[in-house]
Amino acid sequence: MEVQRRKPNMSLTKVPMPHQDPIERASNFNEVALGYTAEMAMEEARRCLQCKHRPCVNGCPVHVKIPEFVHLVAEGEFAAAYDKILETNCLPAVCGRVCPQENQCEEVCVRGIKGEPVGIGRLERFVADWYMKNVRKPIEKLPSNGHKVAIIGGGPAGLTCAGDLAALGYEVTIFEAFQKAGGVLVYGIPEFRLPKAIVAAEVDSLIKRGVKVETNMVIGRVLSIDELITDYNFEAIFLGTGAGLPVFLKIPGIGLPGVYSANEYLTRTNLMKAYDQRYDTPIRISRSVAVIGGGNVAMDAARTALRLGAEKVYIVYRRSEADMPARLEEVHHAKEEGIEILDYTDIDAIESADEREVSSILVHKMRPGEPDKSGRPRPIPIPDSQFSLEADTVILAIGTSPNPLIRHTTEGLDFDKRGCLIADKVSGATSRKGIFAGGDAVTGAATVIEAMGAGKKAAAAIHEFIVSGQRAEVPEE
Amino acid sequence: MYKILTKRELNDAVTMMEVEAPLIAAKAKAGQFIIFRVDEYGERIPLTVAGTDTERGAVMIIFQKVGKGTQRLGALEVGDAILDFVGPLGHPSELEGYEHACVVGGGVGCAIAYPSAKALHAQGTEVTVIAGFRNKDIVILEDEFAAIADELHITTDDGSYGTKGFVTDKLKELIAQREAEGRPPFDLVVAIGPVVMMKFVAKLTAEYGIKTLVSLNPIMVDGTGMCGGCRVTVNNEIKFACVDGPEFDGHQVDFDELILRNNMYRDQESKGKPHYCRIGLTAARDEEE
Ligand SMILES: Cc1cc2nc3c(=O)[nH]c(=O)nc-3n(C[C@H](O)[C@H](O)[C@H](O)COP(=O)(O)OP(=O)(O)OC[C@H]3O[C@@H](n4cnc5c(N)ncnc54)[C@H](O)[C@@H]3O)c2cc1C
Ligand SMILES: Cc1cc2nc3c(=O)[nH]c(=O)nc-3n(C[C@H](O)[C@H](O)[C@H](O)COP(=O)(O)OP(=O)(O)OC[C@H]3O[C@@H](n4cnc5c(N)ncnc54)[C@H](O)[C@@H]3O)c2cc1C
Ligand code: SF4
Ligand code: FES
């Protein structure tokens, strides 16, 4: 596309994002970042230099046509900008909010060399929100091509794969274990960061396009993969079952009441709405909370605890704050809201004063050593640095791995040492004919956009597979 | 939605229902459970599959109305529908290879024990059942147990029916009696009921070295292994009851930890849900500062 150049906005900083006031927002579950107005978006879009070599596009896991869509925003052509993003990314309202842009498109943005990069994520979000509010295009169900595909898991990988296949006329059924589709987007990421109405709208539009969503279906228990192939005539299967199994530390006190996995704490709050009086879901009432970990999950758990009424919330992390894998913006927001980060600190034990429930944790300090495999300094314990930290609730956010249910109930699928499915990087093909996989189930805990990208690639591969006249088979005994 | 096909009150607090869920009915085995949610605002609550009828696509559940979730289920009538009904979850009981089993049920635990007793009987195992209740008024499933047990012993705490005493007293007596009469000893005890009961049964059978299975009932959320809320310590290792269990070797379970964990929300649930969050409290806080 030949774009006509107009004078760029040379401000070194992004147009500021309007936010809810930190004190106000620490006591509600409404979205923190309020989004750009049309004027703000157009002004920010004019910061883009329309670089010929397009580094931002290569920084994006699904190669969103960034300079093109940003140019359209600058021109006020928001609907066209939306269509441009949608060519490669079907969940822009989600990605605009939760992608780690600082490690992707914005990391390599030319404007970032001197000053802040273009606010690509904010623009993506603006375009998606504007479109949802202003454009009501009737969604049409395509005529069926007569081929059936089953998607296991309704997270971003599964939803994307389903959407792309439905667009090609496939009869797609999503089987989801929970009561609602959305995966981590509904049970993990909190309302104040990703309003659930956005996820619901995405799922809704899939249903309108003819995708069937079967909730309460734990595949491996109620139906096996092989039964889907033999008894229900699915010609191909996509496994997007995520990495939902929480890791627990092997330290004393881990079984005490008041110790949660972040998954449980967040599921009770997000999916089961413990914060909403109308719901029966109980959750612990805390004064002081220690969250162990430094990723997005830890930030979400900490900020949720604050909103549920805790007076003091610590994040305990064994490396430096700069090494935290969480999105920069989330760390920044957490600190603004009053959450205290204890970095270079590692947990030894969870203690109980009355032998009934948690009252404190025992921690020690660390210092940076030589760089490890991840390139970050390896944390080394400092002798005699142990101290006790008061906490009536402890939330572990130290990682998750894929649920072993599919592994235990399906013959012939290959998994690696960590329990991740082994699948072709490009096609998502697994060791079994007609079974494809992608997202966290393959990579281990990663990102929404990577899961989405994997779902997209698998959809293309499944189409190719079925068009070539093949179908999934159950191996002979 | 999942339709309620039949409903029967077994006593004042315990209800039996059949729910239409053909896929689950076709798959469920003894020892597995379902999770239901009455409506959008309800909790996810686990209940054992007490029986199935594949022809009618029915799953039987027997539950004690102990709190809001089970009371709300109990308030529904035949023809009403439940929003969510997921299963079958957990591992089926592993009952093969035993010849002389004693199934010990306590209170509503009898409902959870019944399918195991039935499965043992069906595979030709000699089945002795000890069913314990607080008093006569709450005895359940007597006819059902009688139909499949080689021997049925009912105990009540107050002696108002059957033998007076706890199930552990009866079990000890039977073990001694079998030895005295030269009958083969029990090679399996299945104990299901209040955690304290399972703890003491396991303590007793450990003395005699009798393999003992218990079915644990920790507080659960998803029932698929993704929250860890149901974790229990078994043989000094963390296990998730919903996927690794719910049945475990009773001699290896840390029952005291389970008792603590099951009381976690007791205050909240007995008083009704309090106001947890600070929504609406900002103004008050501003005044303080
Ligand atoms: C708290 C939290 C915060 C995060 N924040 C961010 C962020 O800010 N930015 C970002 O990019 N990423 C973030 N992530 C990571 C991101 O959410 C995941 O990488 C992404 O959701 C993976 O998508 P997926 O589709 O592979 O799996 P999931 O989203 O995990 O979905 C898998 C789905 O499969 C279902 N399922 C599993 N087993 C079965 C079965 N046997 N039968 C039927 N259904 C089954 C599950 O119930 C689930 O709905 C976060 C993760 C968490 C937990
Ligand atoms: C695998 C499994 C199978 C089960 N099968 C059956 C069954 O077949 N029939 C049956 O009647 N019950 C069964 N239970 C127990 C049942 O799930 C609980 O009684 C139920 O969750 C209580 O929910 P509620 O909302 O009615 O009460 P709540 O208001 O949640 O709680 C009321 C009281 O019960 C306690 N409580 C809450 N959850 C549990 C629990 N899981 N176990 C013990 N006490 C609890 C609370 O601390 C409180 O004191 C089973 C539990 C598990 C984990
Ligand atoms: S790198 Fe930055 S300035 Fe260059 S085209 Fe991409 S967004 Fe625009
Ligand atoms: S109930 Fe969540 S892991 Fe078992």
Q: Which key phrases capture this entry?
A:
heterodimer; A: 477 residues; alpha/beta; five-stranded parallel beta sheet; 31% helix; 15% strand; globular; B: 289 residues; seven-stranded mixed beta sheet; five-stranded antiparallel beta sheet; 10 helices; 30% helix; 29% strand; disordered C terminus; binds flavin-adenine dinucleotide; binds iron/sulfur cluster; binds FE2/S2 (inorganic) cluster
Give a brief rundown of this model:
Chain A is of the alpha/beta class and 477 residues long.
Q: How are the SSEs placed, and which strands pair?
A:
The complex is a heterodimer of chains A (477) and B (289).
Chain A: H1 22-25, H2 38-45, H3 55-59, H4 66-74, H5 78-86, H6 92-98, H7 120-134, E1 148-152, H8 156-167, E2 171-175, H9 184-187, H10 196-208, E3 212-214, H11 225-230, E4 236-239, E5 245-246, E6 259-261, H12 262-269, E7 288-292, H13 296-307, E8 312-316, H14 328-336, E9 340-342, E10 345-351, E11 360-371, E12 377-381, E13 387-390, E14 393-396, E15 400-401, H15 405-409, E16 435-437, H16 440-443, H17 448-467
Parallel strand pairs in A: 1-2, 1-4, 2-3, 4-16, 6-14, 7-8, 7-14, 8-9
Antiparallel strand pairs in A: 5-15, 10-11, 11-12, 11-13
Helix pairs in contact in A: 2-4, 2-7, 4-5, 5-7, 6-7, 8-17, 12-13
Chain B: E1 2-9, E2 14-20, H1 22-27, E3 33-37, E4 45-48, E5 51-53, E6 58-64, H2 68-74, E7 81-82, E8 84-89, E9 100-106, H3 109-122, E10 126-133, H4 142-148, E11 151-156, E12 163-164, H5 167-180, E13 188-192, H6 195-208, E14 212-215, E15 231-234, E16 237-240, H7 241-244, E17 247-249, H8 255-262, H9 266-271, H10 282-288
Parallel strand pairs in B: 9-10, 9-13, 10-11, 11-12, 13-14
Antiparallel strand pairs in B: 1-2, 1-7, 2-6, 3-4, 3-8, 5-6, 14-17, 15-16
Iron/sulfur cluster binds at residues 48-51, 54-56, 66-67, 70, 109-111, 118, 120 of chain A.
